[in-house]
Design goal:
- The complex is a heterodimer of chains A (195) and B (110).
- Chain A is mainly alpha-helical.
- Chain A is built from 11 helices and no strands.
- Chain A has helices at 7-15, 19-41, 44-60, 72-90, 92-95, 97-107, 116-131, 134-145, 150-157, 161-186, 188-194.
- The radius of gyration of chain A is 20 Å and the shape is elongated.
- Chain B is mostly helical and 110 residues long.
- Chain B has a domain at 52-78 and 86-110.
- Chain B has 4 helices and no strands.
- In chain B, helix 1 (4-10) packs across helix 2 (12-28) and helix 3 runs antiparallel to helix 4.
- The chains are: A mainly alpha (195), B mainly alpha (110).
- The A-B interface holds A 17, 19, 22-23, 26, 30-31, 34-35, 38-39, 42, 44, 47-48, 51-52, 55-56, 59-60, 104, 108-109, 117, 121-122, 125-126, 129, 140-141, 144-145, 172, 175-176, 179-180, 182-183, 187, 190-191, 194 and B 1, 3-6, 8-9, 12, 16-17, 19-29, 31-34, 37-38, 40-42, 44-46, 48-49.
């Protein structure tokens, strides 16, 4: 059985230029970083670039990393910063939204029992997540997908916890409105009941 | 058929949370980085190390050149045993030395 080194030990080794240590950290965190990057950017190439850049930063900034804590939060911070920069700079998610949504909707393996309505609802939700402002989208992804607490997200995004809470609130509200709007279109009589 | 609107109005938090969670799960389902990514990172790290190593060697060579230059300067100076060194106050000579040192230091830095 191979010995599992701590993140801190590996970071110290990286400071001495140990590429093996970087490789071990990469194996440990690659999926997490890539998944977060792809969830934010929805672009596989961008996610690969972000993954590369994040681990290059681990190597070049190893002396600035606190070796007494796990690397996860620091990596999340780098990843979300890089992904945020990408989304705000490229804005590809806005101009090619219909194409992206179509691609994702077609690539998802729906379960046989999923109804057309369910399919439509999920599609609308994906679209609504994409339409969120990048900062809200990042909060939603870190909170729901990565399961981080509000405190951890506050560290990752370098904002007060209250700000995270408020972004989460507005993001949820937008997503809820998107689903309700879709409901209006699908079942007008239900909408009538509530007006 | 259960209306989503009703579900959302009745038990908003759980239902909406589940929807968002599953939507995000679907978004990243089966995604994992291709193996070539590590190769790229490795290559970039090695290139960077080689570059830094190369730059370090250049700096070392320049330091050694500066040392040689300074040694030659010191050797060439004739220190009078019992007289005041008048030429130290020669502004032309001083300026020449300052120029030479500055040039070498600039070279060393960049």
């Amino acid at each position: 059985m191979t010995k599992q080194h701590t993140d801190g030990w590996l970071v110290v080794r990286i400071r001495d230029g140990d590429l093996e240590a970087l490789s071990e950290l990469y194996e440990r965190y690659k999926t997490q970083v890539y998944r977060t990057a792809i969830a934010i950017t929805r672009d596989a190439r961008a996610a690969e670039d972000i993954l590369q850049e994040a681990f290059l930063r681990v190597y070049t900034h190893a002396d600035r990393i606190d070796e007494t804590v796990t690397l996860g939060p620091w990596l999340y911070r780098v990843t979300t910063n890089l992904a945020y920069t990408w989304t705000t700079r490229v804005k590809r998610w806005i101009c090619s939204l219909p194409r992206v949504v179509e691609h994702w909707a077609s690539s998802v393996q729906w379960s046989p029992e999923a109804t057309a309505e369910e399919h439509e609802r999920r599609r609308i939700l994906q679209q609504a997540i994409d339409a969120l402002p990048p900062r809200q989208r990042i909060v939603i992804i870190l909170y729901y997908l990565e399961g981080l607490s509000l405190k951890e997200i506050a560290y990752v995004m370098d904002v007060p916890e209250g700000t995270v809470k408020s972004r989460l609130h507005y993001a949820r509200r937008s997503l809820k409105e998107a689903i309700l709007e879709q409901e209006h279109r699908l079942v007008p009589e239900v909408a009538y009941d509530f007006t | 058929m259960t209306s989503h609107r009703c579900v959302l109005e009745g038990n908003t938090r759980d239902e909406l949370d589940n929807l968002i969670y599953w939507a995000l799960r679907e978004r990243v389902a089966g995604s994992s980085p291709p193996p070539r990514v590590w190769g790229c990172i490795e290559a970039r790290v090695q290139r960077r190390s080689a570059c830094m190593g190369g730059r370090f060697r250049v700096v070392l060579a320049q330091v050694s050149r500066v040392c040689t230059f300074l040694s030659a300067q010191i050797d060439s100076w004739i220190w009078p045993q019992d007289a005041w060194v008048e030429w130290r106050f020669d502004p032309c000579f001083t300026r020449l030395l300052v120029d030479q040192y500055s040039f070498l230091l600039v070279q060393l830095t960049f």
